[in-house]
Amino acid sequence: MNNAEMLLFVSMAMFSIGLLGVIVRRNVLVMLMCMELMLNAVNLSLVTMSQQTGTTIGAVLVFLIFVVAAAEIAIAIPIVLLLVRRKRTLDLDAYTDLKG
Amino acid sequence: MIESVLGNLDTVLLWLFALSALVGGALMLVLRHPMQVAMALISTMVFLGGIYGLLGVHFIAAFQVLIYVGAVMVFMVYVIMLLDVRDPSLRGRYSRMLVPGIAAALALLAVLAFAVLHGGLAPAHASASYTLQQFSVAFLTEYWLYFELTSVLLVAAVVAALAVIKETGTDHEQR
């Protein structure tokens, strides 16, 4: 296995770990951090393929993902603060308002 | 032994950083307190920055550390310190979706591995990789529209964050 394939496998393993964390963890902040891990995994695969093919588009996309991650966290944190102010907890099992 | 290791030091460091990043990601699943999870994520991001540096894209490595660790995770750590530490979600780490979640993650991993193994990787580029100058020129001439659109996205995010905070403020006064 060469280095590029190894990095791709690391990237997909990190993405799966992030998905697993989003699904199974109960804490809202931990879920947010697992989403950041998924974004990082995508960045790693983009950089690997960009270096493999010698084109710049992957690196450009990585920079755009940086901006999207910053915007995402700027929106998500106020929403979490709003939820905590309403429910007094970070536990996802308490957020059942949409349940019929 | 020493000579062969030093001759392949880049490869050894690459595998070491990749392994450390994976361990940090796995630790995020099992650690209990959000602050410990944040530290594991920060270590993963720093190791990813090391991988980017080893791959030769030093500007992405710098921005990985500056933006992710310096801005996003500092913000996250502040919020963790702001919120209550005696939370019921700290006692039980996992929700009821533990088994379906593991099944979904394994299925995703299998599909991705199948795609990579059968699709194959593009053959390595013969010439040297692009330089920072080539990247900058391409970024600001070919892809300038997306660069400008990200500024619009950031402004929208700031306005939305202000709107959320303002909404909660008036709501709080009414109750």
Give a verbal description of the structure.
Chain A is mainly alpha-helical and 100 residues long. Chain A has one domain: Helix Hairpins (Orthogonal Bundle), CATH 1.10.287. Chain A has helices at residues 3-24, 28-53, 57-87. The radius of gyration of chain A is 17 Å and the shape is elongated. Chain A starts with a helix and ends in a 13-residue tail after the last helix. The model of chain A has no long low-confidence stretch (mean pLDDT 89). With 175 residues, chain B is mostly helical. Chain B has two domains: 1-104, Four Helix Bundle (Hemerythrin (Met), subunit A) (Up-down Bundle); 130-175. In chain B, 79% of the residues lie in helices and 0% in strands. Chain B has helices spanning 2-7, 9-30, 34-55, 58-82, 98-119, 132-142, 144-174. Chain B starts with a helix and ends with a helix. At the A-B interface, helix 1, helix 2 and helix 3 of A face helix 2, helix 3, helix 4, helix 5 and helix 6 of B.
List the main descriptive attributes of the protein structure presented here.
heterodimer; A: 100 residues; mainly alpha; 0% strand; elongated; B: 175 residues; Four Helix Bundle (Hemerythrin (Met), subunit A); 2 domains; 7 helices
Q: Count structural domains of chain B.
A: 2
CATH superfamily of the largest domain in chain B: NADH-ubiquinone/plastoquinone oxidoreductase chain 6, subunit NuoJ
Strand count of chain B: 0
What share of residues are in beta strands of chain A? under 5%
Q: Structural class, from secondary structure content of chain A?
A: mainly alpha
Please give the radius of gyration of chain A in angstroms. Answer: 17 Å
CATH fold node name of chain A: Helix Hairpins
Q: Which residues of chain A sit in consecutive blocks of at least 5 with pLDDT less than 50?
A: none
What is the averaged pLDDT score of chain B? 86
Oligomeric state of shown chains: heterodimer
Structural class of chain B: mainly alpha
Number of continuous helical runs of chain B: 7
How many strand segments of chain A? Answer: 0
In one word, what is the shape of chain A?
elongated
Q: What spatial form of chain B do the alpha-carbon principal axes imply?
A: globular
Q: Tell me the β content of chain B.
A: under 5%
User: Architecture of the largest domain in chain B in CATH?
Assistant: Up-down Bundle
Reported for the largest beta sheet of chain A, the result is: none
